[in-house]
Specification:
The chain is mainly alpha-helical. It is built from eleven helices and six strands. The strands form three sheets. It has a two-stranded antiparallel ribbon with strand order 1-2. A two-stranded antiparallel ribbon has the order 3-4. Strands 5-6 form a two-stranded antiparallel ribbon.
């Protein structure tokens, strides 16, 4: 059979490719197939890393709500990932910035303190412009690409760009049952298969990152949706959830306003 044939096969409008992504002699390649573009996919050039937008097949232009992608064209995607914690836009994240950001997100005091400890201790020295550790454990956003580690999805490249192919591969390979996201079991399999030999730091960092991702998204059905995970990568979900928390706290602090809104809603139904 000619592997270069372009005819449609399997009834799914998938053209025959001049390559194969799985062989039966190695079953793991069959059970964990990578993302392969289809003719009508909205994502183009998945193998080309994007400097300023985190794209997916569902969001080929990145995060467009409130002009997020346009507002952050001066930052790489890995810089956008932590932009929420840069409270004064000086490209430096102090421990106090991290703590306030976690509190604004809706986390309690203890969890915010633990997160601050892990985040600033883990990211300060790799991003520090000096060979000596920063005494205040500050994170330098312009050097965040230096904090990249192994044994993860490799969605960020070594310069902080976003790699669509690697992001799509996470869900193509590990979303069992095509749920549109990952549950705890999927993440466990992902973590085991992404581990690199003797990379103990990478194993630990990857595990902590996905635990944090689950806590940040906190899905009611236990499934972290693909677009929510993408929002973690470009940082847009932090701003969104913080605003939701602010509005929820405002309603809780003003029960009279909440009652008035309820009366207006009932009036609309009547008339």
């Amino acid at each position: 059979m000619n592997q270069n044939s372009s005819r449609i096969v399997d009834g799914d409008l998938t053209p025959r490719k001049p390559y194969i992504t799985a062989i039966k002699q190695q079953p793991i390649t069959v059970s964990h197939k990578p993302y392969t573009p289809k003719p009508f996919d909205r994502l183009h050039d998945a193998g080309t890393a994007r400097a300023t937008v985190a794209v997916s097949n569902e969001s080929p232009n990145g995060t467009t709500e409130d002009g997020y992608a346009l507002k952050h064209q001066h930052q790489t995607v890995v810089q956008q990932h932590v932009a929420y914690w840069d409270r004064d836009n000086d490209s430096i994240i102090w421990p106090h910035d991290t703590y306030i950001g976690c509190r604004d997100y809706g986390w309690g005091i203890l969890l915010s303190l633990i997160a601050t400890l892990f985040i600033n201790l883990g990211l300060s020295y790799p991003t520090c412009p000096s060979i000596l550790p920063d005494p205040f454990f500050r994170i330098y956003i312009d050097r965040l690409y230096k904090a990249k580690h192994g044994s993860d999805s490799m969605t960020y490249d070594n310069q902080g760009r976003f790699r669509p192919q690697q992001f799509e591969d996470i869900f193509a390979k590990y979303d069992r049952g095509n749920k549109g996201g990952l549950d705890a079991g999927d993440v466990w399999i992902f973590w085991k298969q992404q581990r690199m030999v003797f990379d103990f730091f990478g194993w630990t960092a990857c595990a902590l990152e996905w635990i944090a991702t689950y806590l940040l998204i906190w899905p009611e059905d236990g499934v972290m949706k693909k677009e929510d995970v993408r929002g973690i990568y470009d940082g847009s979900i932090f701003f969104k959830r913080a605003e939701e928390t602010r509005q929820r706290r405002a309603r809780a602090a003003n029960p009279q306003s909440r009652t008035s809104q309820g009366l207006v809603a009932k009036a609309k139904k009547l008339f």
